[in-house]
Design a protein that fits this description.
Blueprint: E1 2-3, H1 6-10, E2 19-30, E3 34-38, E4 46-49, H2 57-61, E5 68-77, E6 85-96, H3 112-117, H4 126-148, E7 152-153, E8 159-160, E9 172-173, E10 200-202, H5 207-217, E11 219-227, E12 240-249, H6 253-274, H7 276-291, H8 303-312, E13 316-319, H9 320-328, H10 331-334, H11 351-361, E14 366-372, E15 388-396, E16 400-407, H12 412-422, H13 430-437, E17 443-449, H14 450-458
Parallel strand pairs: 1-2, 4-6, 7-11, 13-14
Antiparallel strand pairs: 2-3, 2-5, 3-4, 5-6, 8-10, 9-10, 11-12, 12-17, 14-15, 15-16, 16-17
The protein binds 4-amino-1,4-dioxobutan-2-aminium adenosine-5'-monophosphate and magnesium ion.
């Protein structure tokens, strides 16, 4: 007798009247007869019919929500409604009991807050299993895209001595004794005595190292965890998140935009083609949620419509300067509805402004480019105007910034000047400067926040619900 997953049994590839074996967790047990069994392979449950006359009463009592069971029986065409096939059970063994009094995941609606506290069990619900299957599919689609387009996958280090974004929001890595750290003559902690002989941190971005590989292997990308010690308790920030960072030699900013747009469309198309069931489930869930809201707050498009909208329409490319003009003349700015009023060129854009541009003004994904140099990172290429840099941010409806990237400063003298201006010592980035000394060339790349992509793709509104075990200020449970 062969063992199958629920997905295989429901796929209609197994002929009816085949003897099958299956293991999974009980979602519900109805009328002492119908087990809805789920093994995570698909959103759907398989119904297993237990003829209670043929089974011991003590065994039947142990078939409870959450129990792990092993079932053997015949796959048959279903007698009832709601499923095409079911398993007529001949053998049932409870592998692991689940006390119905204390099992947290009851067969009813739980709040996302409650499920976050039970993140170790929340993937036993339909919503979270769908989200995490989609997360897995998106991750595969990303590797597939780069693989098919001639990129090499590069593993950037997680422990690093450099602050790629220059924002100073890093988690220190040390094995010095906090109570008894060695001090130097100035009375400061002496990191030369630390494990690496210098100050080290968890990386905020693999970009600088990826640049070294782009300038040798041509087209590369990283896909790994990144860490930021910013105290932002928002629905879009994590202290530990995953980032995808392609980096390409001889590519300029328009090329970077083309790559980012094609890439985003391709991975979204992948899930539309391959993860219909989970997407339809989440789409229906959102429509149900929407019905509870007042008309004005309901979304104009369903989840699947939103995804198709991205794959079928061009991203709007707008310079920072044009965006500032639009914002300055916008209603919420004039009526002082924005928290941060835009009055002059040079202002940093807040998420309220980004969302106004994508959701109200353009109503489609937007690529903003050529930002003022002083609100962007040191490594971005200075334009001839001397005040803007070849930066680009991609803004998505409902999300805001999802991608940040740039054409890199490839001129040694200009880069050195910029580093000096913000106080980055040349010794710290001697290897990064070497790239500009030996065979320098135009090159560009960007970073996609993976969780923000998963939020967009699943319609989940809190970033804590699209990563298995979220790390946020004051929270590192599990
Ligand atoms: O815009 P960021 O900071 O860009 C970089 O790190 C560049 N080095 C990328 C590059 O050019 N290779 O971050 C890139 C993206 C953001 O657009 C956002 O989607 C995501 O990473 N991100 C976060 N996601 C979750 N939580 C946070 N705290 C995030 N910070 C950035
Ligand atoms: Mg950014």
């Amino acid at each position: 007798m062969k063992s199958y997953t629920v997905s295989e049994l429901l796929s209609q590839k197994v002929a009816p009247n085949t003897e099958v074996e299956i293991k999974g967790w009980v979602r519900t047990f109805r009328a002492n007869r119908f087990i809805a069994l789920n093994d995570g392979s698909t959103l759907n449950n398989i119904q297993c019919v237990v003829d209670f006359e043929n089974f011991d009463e003590a065994l039947l009592k142990r078939i409870t929500t959450g129990a792990a069971v092993h079932i053997k029986g015949d796959l048959v065409e279903s007698q009832g409604k709601g499923q095409t096939v079911e398993v007529q059970a001949k053998f049932v063994d409870v592998l692991g009991d689940s006390d119905p009094e204390t099992y947290p995941i009851q067969p009813k609606k739980h709040s996302f807050e409650f499920l976050r506290e039970n993140a170790h069990l929340r993937t036993r619900t339909s919503t979270f299993s769908a989200v995490m299957r989609l997360r897995s599919a998106l991750s595969f689609a990303i590797h597939k895209y780069f693989n098919e387009n001639g990129f090499y996958y590069m593993h950037a280090p997680i422990i690093t001595g450099s602050d790629a974004e220059g924002a100073g929001e890093m988690f220190r890595v040390t094995n010095l004794d906090a109570k008894n750290a060695p001090l130097n003559e100035a009375g400061e902690v002496d990191y030369s005595k630390d494990f690496f002989g210098k100050e080290t941190n968890l990386t905020v971005s693999g970009q600088l190292e990826a640049e070294t590989y782009a300038m040798s292997l041509g087209k590369v990308y990283t896909f790994g965890p990144t860490f930021r010690a910013e105290n932002s308790n928002t629905s879009r920030h994590l202290a530990e998140f995953w980032m995808i960072e392609p980096e390409v030699a001889f590519m300029d900013l328009p090329g970077n935009m083309d790559l980012a747009e094609d890439f985003m469309k391709s991975v979204i198309k992948y899930i539309l083609d391959n993860n219909k069931e989970d997407l339809e489930f989440l789409d229906n869930r959102l429509q149900e949620e929407d019905k509870k809201k007042p008309q004005a707050e309901r979304s104009e498009m369903t989840l699947i419509e939103k995804l198709k909208f991205v794959t079928d329409n061009n991203f709007k490319r707008v310079s920072y300067t044009e965006a500032i003009d639009i914002l300055r003349n916008s209603k919420p700015n004039k009526k002082k509805k924005f928290k941060y009023i835009i009055d002059e060129w040079g202002a940093d854009l807040q998420s309220e402004h980004e969302r106004y541009l994508v959701e109200k003004h353009f109503n489609c994904p937007v690529i903003l480019f050529d930002y003022p140099a002083n609100i962007k990172a040191f490594y971005m290429r200075l334009n001839d105007d001397g005040k803007t840099v070849r930066a680009m941010d991609i803004l998505f409806p409902g999300i805001g910034e999802i991608v940040g990237g740039a054409q890199r400063e490839e001129r040694l003298d200009v880069l050195k000047e910029k580093m000096a201006a913000i106080g980055i010592p040349e010794e710290d980035l001697w290897w990064y400067l070497d790239l500009r000394k030996f065979g320098t060339a135009v090159h560009s790349g960007f970073g996609l926040g993976f969780e923000r992509l998963v939020m967009f793709a699943t319609g989940m509104s809190n970033i804590r619900d699209v990563i298995p075990f979220p790390r946020t200020p004051q929270n590192a449970e599990f």
